[in-house]
Every structure is written in C-alpha cells, then in structure tokens.
Design goal:
Belongs to the glycosyl hydrolase 17 family. It comes from Eragrostis curvula. By secondary structure, the protein is of the alpha/beta class. The chain is built from 15 helices and 17 strands.
Length: 491
C-alpha cells in the first residue's frame, strides 16, 4: 500500500471498528413518516441502533432522514415514489439527476450505506388499474444506466416492492400464478432482478386476510400451528405466511425464475383499529414471525432457505395515513409515534426486549380537554372538526380509547387536535368549550398524547457521535476502499 493511502485506510478501519454492529442482520424495519408528530431523524436512528436494527426501508429519499443515517452502519433502501415513475421512465437525464440527488451524494460524501432503490411502491396493485405498470421497466432501465455511470451498479440494486395481489391461486400454493395481465411484465422484472443479483420483494399481510374474510381461520394467521392446515400434495401448510410465500415461489417457477431470491418488503400486525388488532395479537404474530425466520426453517417449497431480508411493518405509528383500508392503518408500529415500545418483543438481534427512544423533544406537559363547566350539547361540530384534522381512530371500536364515555371522547378529540397544532392556545378554544390542563387526563389504557416539538429537528437531525465524525471526515477515495472492504468481508 502506498504511503499516501495509509491514513485514509487507517481512518476507514477505525470507522469500521466504531460502527460495526447490525449491518448483516436479516431483519429490518419500514420507517414511514406520514405523521404530524415526527421525532427528529437522529432520535429515530439512535432508536434503531439501540435495538440493533441493521436494515431500514424508506418510502422516499428524504434528505433529513438520509443525513441522520450517515455513518450509522444501517443498510438502507431508499424509495422512488409512484408519482416519480413517469418522469424517470421518460428521461435518462431525470434518472441521472435522481441518482445524483438521492444516492450518489450521500454515498460519496456521508457514508450512507444505500443498498437498494425501491422503484415505486406496490405499483401493480389492482386498485391502481395499471396506471403505473408501463413505467416500471423503462424506469428501472434508466436508473440502472444511471447507477452504472455513477459506478454504483455493483453495490446498489434496484427492486420493486409488490403487493401479494400480483399473484393468486385457485386453491393451493402449488397452483400459484401471476395475474394474467401481469405475466409479461413479471417475466421482464424477474429477468432484470436475476441479471442484477437483486431479490423479488413482496409485501405479505396475514392480518389483512383475516380482516377481510370472516371465514379465514384465525389461528392460520399466526405461527403456532393451525387446526385448519392446508394440504397441498406432499406439503402441509400450517400458517398463512408459508402458504402465501410458496404461492409466489410457484408463480415465479411458472415463468422460469423459481430460484429467484425473495425478500419480504412489508409484514406486520397492527395494535388497534379492528377487533383482531391488539397488543397481544401483534406481539404473538411478530414474535412468531421472527422466531420462524431466525430458525432458518424456510417453507415447504424452499426448505432451509429463509427470505433474503424481512422488513417489519412498521417501526413507528403514522397517524396521518389514510384510513380507507381501516382504522388500523395508523397503528402498525412496534413503537408508538414517539419511539416508545408498545410491547415486549425480541427481535433476535441481541436485545431480549425492545428499547424505547431517548431524548425525545416533547412539547410541554399540557393537554386540551372539554371544559367541565360548559354544556356540551352543541359539541358535535367541534368534535367533527377536530377529528377531521387529527387522529381519533383510538376512539373507535377496537381502539384503546373505545368506551371512555362522551366527555372523554370529546376531550380526546380536542387534545389530538391541540397537539397536532403544536399546542397553539387558540386551537383549544372550540367556541369556549375547551380548556387547557396540566393534569394528565389519560384513563387506563387510553393515553392522551403530548406532541413532539419538531422545531428542534433541524438542529439535531444531523449526524453526531464518533461514527459520524469519522465518516464525514473521510475522503471519497477512502469511502470506496471502505465499501470494497465491506463487500470482501460479506462475501
């Protein structure tokens, strides 16, 4: 090694020693940000590191999030949104600009370990009525060329997270096929993934199968065995995950790609918003899933071969997501919006239980409630206004605040809106029917939240600590040596 290269190499070895940790973990999380109560990205990154979570899947390429991930040692999947597909598909220059803006500048300057670009999010979903289908392959082609130009194609892979409705079976997994209208594009996609060494990414939700079908056996959704196993020739399926996974394996086999690696882009269980969504069920499902994956048992059609990666959905609750699918849509997190663990869970990454976030910049401890001195007969319009803006799904059947009574419902709605408005005193007026209190009005399992002061996010979202100091200080040449060493270690 030349003398001039010794110092960068030494710095890189120090960086590797400082930041070594969860990068090789098979389990990751989805980090969504559709919330009015966003914890600073640095707090969320610290939360993942404390729990030794080594992989994260993003739905976009948010600059603040990526800056916070610099030097963390966490492997990252960034997202190209469905709304960006047509532009990238139609312009090689636009693809070059996107890769430069959202990948190259972080990899080269900040040490963000970007491994995948998700090209769209469930773009083949039936409800989209083919509006994104024609963009996928052209977008991937342009992005691949952009990665080649940036000397990143051997390290950053393109994938397309697909909903499980892309394939189907008349009865048993061995009869799995892709939807007729998708057969051609799925063959093209599988060929692309195979040639680049990337996995087929699919989102599987046994909860939705149970939620949408009253005849679905409840125990079949979990991993403790079922009184209603599915027999498919020599194979017997005792849980919905294995059956769904092998249906995809069969569909891939029928187009000539039966050995293509499969990664699970989203899987999880919500904690409220439906009768089958609760803390007990969520813990049972996620722990059962983790135990199943870490056992390396595989499935009947792929024995001993677990998925390439598994990304839990999700890391945090997102109270501004659409509730068209159901009230549960805002409650998928293994942590609440502020990074507090909802239930004990062993991720199989070294900690026996989840560790909650620290140094969360909460707003002051005050709440907005219904004024007990006022007649609340005319409250309905105010409550509707509050719930149209803030999240009141906890009050619905299956929610943690269901049954707290009319006045409790009003207070919960008022406070949700008040916290969303960052405790603006005017937002607790409601025509004189609301009042601010410094006594926590929470009741039993019904927690009245205190919002997050996101004005502090920009000040603390930048990278900090010894890992970042080293990473931000290394040269671009040193970074590529570091990447080379990591790939050699992983090989």
């Amino acid at each position: 090694m030349a003398a001039g290269a010794a110092l960068p190499a030494l710095l890189l070895l120090v960086a590797a020693a400082l930041c070594a940790g969860p990068a090789d973990a098979a389990l990751g999380v989805n980090w969504g940000t559709v919330s009015a109560h966003r914890a600073p990205p640095s707090v969320v990154v610290d939360l993942m590191r404390a729990n030794r979570i080594g992989k994260v899947k993003l739905f976009d390429a948010d600059a603040g999030v990526l800056r916070a991930l610099a030097g963390s040692g966490i492997q990252v999947m960034v997202g190209l949104t469905n709304g960006e597909l047509s532009t990238i598909a139609g312009s090689a220059a636009a693809a070059d600009a996107w890769v430069q803006q959202n990948v190259s500048r972080y990899v080269g300057r900040g040490g963000v370990d970007i491994r995948y670009i998700a090209v769209g999010n469930e773009p083949f979903l039936t409800s989209y009525q083919d509006q994104f289908q024609s963009y996928i392959i052209p977008a991937m082609t342009n992005l691949q060329q952009s990665l080649v130009k940036a000397n990143l194609a051997s390290y950053v892979k393109l994938v397309v997270p697909c909903n499980a409705d892309a394939y189907q079976s008349a009865s048993v997994p061995s009869q799995g096929v892709f939807r007729t209208e998708l057969t051609q594009i799925m063959t093209q996609l599988a060929a692309f993934l195979s040639s680049s060494g990337a996995p087929f990414v699919v989102n599987i939700y046994p909860f939705l199968s149970l939620y949408q079908n009253a005849d679905f056996p409840q125990d079949y959704a979990f991993f403790d065995g079922s009184t209603h196993p599915l027999v498919d020739g020599p194979n017997t399926y005792y849980n919905a995950f294995d059956g769904n996974f092998d249906t995809l394996v069969s569909a891939l086999s029928k187009i000539g790609y039966g050995q293509l690696p499969i990664a699970i882009g989203e899987i999880g269980w919500p904690t409220e918003g439906a009768p089958s969504a609760n803390l007990t069920a969520a813990r049972a499902f996620n722990q059962g899933l983790i135990n199943r994956i870490t056992s390396n048992k595989g499935t009947p059609l792929r024995p001993g071969v677990p998925p390439a990666d598994v990304y839990l959905f999700s890391l945090l609750d997102e109270e501004q997501k659409s509730i068209l699918p159901g009230n549960f849509e805002r409650h998928w997190g293994i942590f609440s919006f502020d990074g507090q663990a909802k239930y004990p869970l062993n991720l199989g990454l070294g900690n026996p239980v989840l560790k909650s976030a620290k140094e969360v910049p909460y707003l002051p401890s005050r709440w907005c409630i219904a004024n007990p001195a006022r007649n609340l007969d005319s409250i309905s319009d105010h409550m509707k206004l509050a719930c149209s803006m803030a999240d009141c799904t906890n009050l619905e059947y299956g929610g943690s605040c269901y049954g707290i009574g009319p006045k409790g419902n009003v207070s919960y709605a008022f406070n949700s809106y008040y916290q969303q408005q960052k405790q603006d005193p005017n937002s607790c007026d409601f025509g004189g029917l609301g009042m601010i209190t410094y006594l926590d009005p929470s009741m039993g399992e019904c927690h009245f939240l205190v919002g997050i002061d996101d004005s502090k996010s920009s000040a603390i979202a930048s990278c900090s600590g010894p890992c970042c100091a080293v990473f931000w200080g290394i040269t671009a040449l040193g970074f590529w040596v570091f990447m080379y060493l990591r790939m050699m270690v992983s090989a």
